[in-house]
Amino acid sequence: MRYHHLVVSICAALVVAAPASAKTISVSADAADANEKLQEALILAEPGDVVELGAGVWKLTDGLSLDVDNVTVRGAGTGEGGSILDFSGQQGAGEGLLVTSDDVLLTNFAVLNTKGDGIKSKGADRIVYHKLRVEWTAGPKATNGAYGIYPVESSDVLVDSVYVRGASDAGIYVGQSKNIVVRESVATENVAGIEIENSYDADVHDNIANRNTGGILVFDLPSLPMQGGHNVRVFSNIVSDNSVPNFAPAGNIVASVPTGTGVLVMANRNVEIFDNILDRNGTANVMIVGYRYEHKDPNYQPLPRQIVVRDNQHGTAGYAPAFPGGAEIAAAMGGTLPPVLWDGSGDAIVNDDVGVLSLNLPDMAMPQSAAKPSPADLKGAAPAPLPGITLPASMEAKVR
Amino acid sequence: MRRVFAAIAAALLCASGASGGAPPGVDRALVESDAMPTKLSAFGLFRDNDPLRPVAGIAYTLRTPLFSDYAEKHRFMLIPEGERVTITADGAIDFPVGTVLVKSFGWPDWNGGRPVETRLLIRRASGWVALPYIWDADGEDATLALGGRRVPVSFTTAAGDRHSIRYAVPNRNQCKECHSLNGEIVPIGPKLRNLVLDPAASAALRARYFAQPAALEPTMPAWDDRASGSVADRARAYLDVNCAHCHNPGGSASNSGLFLRWTDDPAGVNYGIGKRPTAAGRGSGGMDFAIAPGAPDHSFMIYRLESIDPGIAMPEVGRSTVHKEGAALLRQWIADMVKDGSRRLPSGLNERRHPHNRHPGKGRDLSVAA
């Protein structure tokens, strides 16, 4: 049954994706003007073409961009002997690679040390990020670029089997998009490992988010073209040891994430967190909060609503709460905070068999100094489960 | 600038005087085809392929131009015989198929004032196409550079500042990053509110080019001419021209929610006042707001304009130097804004509830946890 289904979807994808004229354009890392040659290849590619990145270290001075539909950019690997796009000497552009066309597959190469974002795709529907490495090789530094993998304003996004390290904002950041899957990826030593922001319908599963400041974030922010984030499932991930001191430039929202945060939900509705392994997150394994900055957006909904936490395995947590007053609260509670922290706003169901601490700040206008922390029991009947994300077969076929 | 105008105007006068009719040399079939010729000379746009001597067309300038590393830009437009440019009901300029907008970039004290590059924006039946050409070392012709290139140049600004930079000729995709609106390439310079036709162009030539020549009345101030508008209006003109081609709801920076068109509400949060960073990363410079009224040093819009670090600088494309004079205008505009929270400021600027915001790097933890 499953085999039959697979064959059908591959055939369908081939019909769509391979015009008769499809060709492979190979570019070598060694050419003196490799940057210009590669950029030309990305411009002259036609739908169906593959742009093949030669093995070796590419010394690039300017950002690359792709604006042709249905092109594959394929390298020879993400590690030694692979196709390594090194932007240490970058002089221009806000990212290493920018994709603005639909049905693009990026696979099997690495992007290192960009000055801004690593790989960005904007308005790029059905994009597939597969087997990529985006890394700032010196590890956590405030001078690193913001986002590693950065799809925005897109419908149907797949991030599969990528590795991101060192982003001074989020390693994998999906913003203002719909129908999203982030899976089987590793995010480490970023400020935020994986972040879903102002987006609808996302599955984040089977990832490892460890040694970030915060592991997995589900946010919604005001005054943006797309907001009202909802329907996000975070499941079967390992979210552990998110202990890296926050190194985000101040002002950015992630600069306010306390070190030691596992999964953090802010101002979203219908978020399910289940079947994860949550361990050694010094502030909290799970945190559920409202957006407490002032704003002037009458359409913005700042509360977390219908958040469900169930069936997760909790290791230690709450032993190093990194928010003001956290240590005092922990001391009063016998040394550690319970693994789940709720600011007391909106509504949440927590059926995990662990303690929940509420700060009892239901009103967004209440200052943190008004917190009256107390244990809370949020057990209850969860709303009907979310259906889960199905991506177009053409996308799944690209990673099989 | 005036000198350039005079040079092009003189060339065009010669051209029109000499021919009077069909532009000599312009390969209209090539212009209107889908071809991307390797050499600029193939189009036949110039006399002796001298970029300062167009064979035909009308030169134009902009009240407020886009800053491009202090380059002087020579602009002219060329439309097919028998066609006319029209002004649409909503005030947009509609160029006919076959239009070529030609813009050459150079510095008076670099390479004898010869342009480094010439960009064509051609209206074809399939839409606008952007073609960047870089002048060859011998200056005889220019070669298509779809992939862009960095060209070392040195020049001195009017203020006497000496710059040696690796000037970035944009690749074709970067052309589109700025020239795109809802996914289509569009011209961004020649807008009705900003377009100034060569004053030397005769009434007959204007009437030959424009169906409604009298409608060409630019309303936007010149950013550097105090007589043309208040500081605030000139700052808004500067933002419109330098930022709004991306910072609009259909542009490359739509996701930022920062919209800087001349027509946008300059008091709104989407104009940057009290607007927190969205995806600015290092571009925030540790500041909380794009524009903090009265405090240019706490406004990351200024921080980004005054940086040339690719992870910080705005605009992202087309700038390897800081536009000191433009940044100074925006600084003055922000400094002049009332600081008092009781006036038209967003209350978010009253940061008493978020004391950590005043101390970048400290206490990065409050808002989310509580």
What does this structure look like?
The complex is a heterodimer of chains A (400) and B (370). Chain A is mainly beta. Chain A is built from four helices and 32 strands. By secondary structure, chain B is an alpha+beta fold. In chain B, 20% of the residues lie in helices and 18% in strands. Chain B has eight helices and 13 strands. In chain B, strands 8-7-6-5-2-1-13 form a seven-stranded antiparallel beta sheet, sandwiched between helices. In chain B, a hairpin with a 6-residue loop joins β7 and β8. At the A-B interface, α2, β4 and β7 of A face α3 and α8 of B.
Percent of residues in helices of chain A: 10-25%
Radius of gyration of chain A: 21 Å
**Number of DSSP helices of chain B?**
8
pLDDT averaged residue by residue of chain B = 85
Beta-strand fraction estimate of chain A: 35-45%
| Helix/strand class of chain A | mainly beta
Shape of chain A: elongated
Main sheet: strands, sense, barrel of chain A: 20 strands, parallel
Major sheet description of chain B:
7 strands, antiparallel
Task: Compute the number of strand runs of chain A.
Answer: 32
Mean pLDDT over the residues of chain A: 93
- Rg of chain B, nearest Å: 22 Å
| Cα shape of chain B | globular
In short:
The complex is a heterodimer of chains A (400) and B (370). Chain A is mainly β and 400 residues long. Chain A is built from four helices and 32 strands.
